Amino acid sequence: MTIDMSQFYQVFFEESAEHLAAMEGLLLNLDIENPDSEQLNAIFRAAHSIKGSAGTFGFTDLAETTHILENLLDRIRKQELGLRADMVDAFLESGDLLRDMLEAHQGRGAVDVQAVESICNRLRQLSAGPEEMAPEPAPAGGAVATEAVQQPVGKHVFDIQFVPTEISAKGNGVANLLDEFRAMGSLEIISQPDAEMHNLGYWQMRLVTDASQEAFSDQIDFIAENGAWRVVEDVSAAGDDDQAFGIFGDSPGAPDAERGYGFFAPPLIPSSEETDGYGFFEPLPSPADTAKERPAGIGQEGEGYGFFAPLAPSASLGPAVEEGDGFGFFVPLPSVPDVLPEIAPRSDDPSNQPAPPVAVEKQGAEPRGRVAKASASANANADSSIRVSIEKVDQLINLVGELVITQAMLLQTAAQMQGDTPERLVNGLAQLERNTRDLQESVMSIRMMQISFVFSRFPRVVRDLSSKLGKQVELKTSGETTELDKGLIERIADPLTHLIRNSLDHGIELPEIRIAAGKNPVGTITLKAYHQGGNIVIEVGDDGAGLPRNKILAKARERGLPVSDQMTDQEVFLLIFEAGFSTAEQVTDVSGRGVGMDVVRRNIQAMGGRVEIESMLGVGTRMTVRLPLTLAILDGMSIAVGDQTYILPLSYVVESFQPQSGDIKTLSNHARVIQVRGEYLPVVVLHEVFNLKSRAGDFTQGIMVVIDADGIKAALFVDALVGQHQVVIKSLEANYRRVQGISGATIMGDGHVALILDVSAIAGMAKTSLQKTG
Amino acid sequence: MEVITHGGSTVSDDDSVANEYLTFTLGSEEYAIDILKVQEIRGYEQPTLIANSPPFIKGVINLRGIIVPIVDLRIKFNLGKIEYTPFTVVVILNVAGRVIGAVVDSVSDVFSLTRAQIRPAPDFSGTFDTKYILGLAAVETRMMIVTDIERLMTSADMELIDATATSS
Fold first, then answer.
1. Is B130 helix (H, G, I), strand (E, B) or coil?
2. What distance in Å separates the CA atoms of residue B55 and residue B72, rounded to the nearest whole number?
3. Are B67 and A734 within 8 A, CB to CB?
4. Are A734 and B98 in contact (CB under 8 A)?
5. Which of A359, A407, A422, A531 has its CA 20 to 30 A from that of A620?
């Protein structure tokens, strides 16, 4: 068995990171007073999955920490312990540490060993505390509890069988385990693998100890191959009791999801175990009615194992199937020895514990699996996605882009043939165009991700920060399903975090101040995402104090920035994005150092986006981030200026018309304006902006295109409109640099490059030129 | 994908190991650049103008789906006659992870030069800053100016890369 595990590491890292994120999200949503058992189970599953795969890959630090975490979670979800706020804090913290560990395993950063140690201890304390007060009977369902036999005192004899994983077998895992056993009591090894197998193989041993099974079964689970272990307490050997019980063995930290085994214990006379809920009952020829009642009771447990002893093979399957993750064990009674035990196993739901040993007449009989249908639909989502490297997707996108260009070229060639084009060719080309566009859209959508991927981390940020600052803040998000490119998603997270921190620290006031101002003591931060034109807009708003214009101006003067009282609010507010600018009275560890906001703006600009601020003193502040959909297919209008062709994104175009002589007026003899539908719009003459020679002698020979860039309207003067195209945006910056007024480039049907105009920048130019003169 | 720095400034210590250099002419001067930086050589085609760019940046072309800027080194260094004929050559360079086209008068040869053959250039002031010159190499009667093309193309003088990109 020499499989190179490392090839799966990446998948493990990704999956674990996802599990951690899911866990965090669920934890934040938990209602501490009244936790939803479904959510608790989901958290447990996430932790369990991490533990399972960490163990498999030999990341023991991860596995151990998650194990402790999982123990506590397990007790909470079984309602043995009440959920408390400090537990959630501990969970969140350990989640952070686990993330650090994952990073460290990937060669980034280091793990704070002390922090790990302390959180483990904290979790252990949380988990152990109440147990000492009340050593409880197994609360796994009423019917079971009444039948529970108290833990026998004295020595126990355990039959232990396991197959270690390759990693633990070659390492010290097995040796350590054996040492531990020896420390606990007397160990007798019944069979062990050959020496040349390096401990790899089947182990069987017998341990006599006064410790409970709890004490060591976890270690076995770590060392053993997924699910390939079994511990059976031999009560008869201990000479304790003589009653015939079916045991449903313990399984903390059970085998992984994929292995839904039932282990069939030899017909021993077991005793009950503590802590973990077993359902057990007497497989004696007991009255049929009790046997039937019991499964119903157990089936309702979250745990959902229904064990029951049918009198006849036809005994109902109902209780087991009822529960999504239910098991049903049909234990044949001695009176019907020909019935094979049946399992209705589950689902790959990792929260499920493995099928525990069942006392059956036929030892070692093979269980017959039956797939529970209920779980199938729940897993449909997980099964219907695949992991593909982003490079492959990008390659696909590039190829489709080339296809689009080729298709456009064909279309243009056909158009040039004028009347000579055969009709069938024209039809075929039209169909090709449609298909290509559909193909392109589908391929593009692969790279698109929902922005909830980023938004989901903010509840945590807000929670941590607001408690640190002593503020009460509620985070409202909307538009989580807005899709944007994966590349952008990754890069927008940091700037947004900064904006939210900023809102929390500077925007939202302390509760007392809010009450004094007649506001709700709980501040609100709204996070909103939506599409607007060719942009993605993300708004971060708060109902806090607003930006103090005078204070910003004063601060700017202090720092020697060129400011005047005539500046618009917009311009004043944008000053907060200057490096080192902060109006905070005191520097806290949250913000106030003046770093951050300049980084925010730089990052957003690097993505081709912009930030705008609106604010009203005492009412609140709204920061709007506009990002381009870089990968989207752009619907563009091609325009001619001189001998050059440019692409104008269609979403910005309002209308176009041919101006009459005298339509254009001048302001202060420099800035030109034109009246369009009762509105005076600044005129941007494109050939002047780009220093080109226009073919249009005067304004009447060209075309005015009215553009609307995020509320700023302008009339763009061009020589002619050429046509409308769907264009693939190519980066100009990949090999060149950013050019003022140009947002990108594309390749036209004839193979030439056409530049795509940055309408917002051009409209901005119009505005500033008006302001300078006006 | 990071371009491995090869030859040029990091020639191996062994003086006898030869690297191959492509030589091209600008006016009457002959330049040699590390051949591993050269992706291909193609004819000149009319590029798409970039507004408000310096005169030596001729514009961008479509190189099989990639947008590639074209620099006319003759204009930049004020050498040779600026004319575009079907024989005008564009050397497509692959430097610093970018693809850049350079217009030159002609491409002449490929030489193997050992480190010993490349002599340090004397300090002189000229249009061609000495910091981009690795040395001078003589082959028969010809003198070749061995150039660190990567350094040249990524320099602020060429205005090919955003200032923020170069500073980081």
1. helix
2. 8
3. yes
4. yes
5. A531
Full-prediction pTM beyond 0.80?
A: no
The full set of domain ranges for chain B reads 19-166
CATH number of B19-166: 2.40.50.180
Looking at beta carbons, which residues of chain B come within 8 Å of A647? Answer: none
User: Closest Cα partner for A717 from A743, A747, A695?
Assistant: A695
Q: Residue A510 burial by CB count (10 A; 0-12/13-18/19+): exposed, middle or buried?
A: middle
Q: What residue of B is the nearest CA neighbor of A731?
A: B67
Interchain CB distance below 8 Å, B48 and A742: no
Spatial neighbors of A449 by CB under 8 A, at least 6 apart, are: A483, A484, A485, A486, A489
Whose structure tokens read 């940046």?
B57
Q: Is B48 on the interface with A (CB under 8 A)?
A: yes
Give me the interface pTM, i.e. the ipTM: 0.79
CA distance B13 to chain A (A): 32
Angle formed at CA A91 by CA A125 and CA A138, multiple of 5 degrees: 55
Do the Cβ atoms of A753 and B48 come within 8 Å? Answer: yes
- CA of A566, closest CA in chain B: separation in Å? 31
Going from the first residue of chain A to its last (774 residues), give the mean pLDDT of each consecutive group of 10, the final group possibly shorter. Answer: 63 80 80 77 81 78 81 78 78 83 78 79 73 40 39 62 65 68 72 65 71 66 65 55 42 41 43 41 43 42 42 41 41 42 41 41 40 42 70 82 80 79 85 88 81 85 85 88 81 85 84 87 90 80 85 81 77 77 55 63 74 86 80 75 86 84 76 82 84 78 83 84 80 80 81 85 70 48
Distance from C-alpha of A110 to C-alpha of A73, rounded to nearest angstrom: 26
Residues in chain A with CB shorter than 8 Å from the CB of B102 are: none
From A751's Cα to the closest Cα of chain B, the distance in A is 7
Residues in chain A within 8 Å Cβ distance of B59: 753
Which of A398-432 are b and which e, b meaning 16 or more Cβ less than 10 Å from the residue's Cβ? eebbebbbebbebbeebeeeeeeeeeeeeeebeee
Chain A neighbors of B153, CB-CB under 8 A: none
